[in-house]
Design brief:
By secondary structure, the protein is an all-alpha fold. Helices cover 75% and strands 0% of the residues. The chain has one domain: Four Helix Bundle (Hemerythrin (Met), subunit A), CATH 1.20.120. The two termini are 40 Å apart.
Length: 165
């Protein structure tokens, strides 16, 4: 597997993991469940590791996709910048997770802080994923497509009757 394949394997973990952990944290607060809090704190540590893996595979992925003519380098830069910001948030939440585990007697405040942080990172990594998708899928951006993508060789110049439905 090349760098892009590894990046695609690991980058979905933070995107899905932070919203899932947010739900666990909210449930732990609603049910007053120490067990769910502990699992959630552990998940924050695992997610920080997965975020690091995703960050480390981003460079090799960029080297693979930059060879393609339709790739706009600015989209890679925007994606990488947003991912860096997410990484800082992942570090902060890992510290919150460690603190929650270490100072478990006052866990409610750590759980609330972790829940707010995972909500913020869920949004951030959703944005990172969107920007990553724009690298190879400009059609999800809603704007005009680059000429190389909008008029591929062998395609009709006007939409077919099926495209107008």
């Amino acid at each position: 597997m090349n760098g892009a394949a590894w990046h695609l394997v690991v980058n979905h973990v933070p995107v899905i993991g932070y919203p899932f952990t947010f739900v666990l944290l909210v449930l732990s607060l609603l049910r007053k469940s120490d067990e769910l809090s502990i699992v959630s704190y552990g998940a924050l540590l695992v997610l920080a590791g997965a975020t690091f893996a995703s960050l480390r595979t981003g460079g090799p992925a960029a080297h693979v996709v930059r060879r393609f003519a339709e790739i706009v380098p600015e989209t890679i830069h925007q994606h990488a910048h947003a991912a860096d910001q997410g990484w800082y948030g992942a570090i902060a939440l890992a510290v919150v997770g460690l603190a929650g585990l270490a100072f478990f007697r006052s866990a409610r405040s750590w759980t609330v802080l972790a829940a707010l942080g995972t909500l913020a990172l869920s949004v951030q990594f959703g944005w990172v994923a969107h920007l990553g998708g724009l690298i190879r899928h400009p059609e999800i951006g809603g704007g005009p497509l680059p000429a190389a993508v909008s008029q591929a060789p062998g395609t009709p110049s006007s939409p077919s009757k099926h495209d107008r439905l």
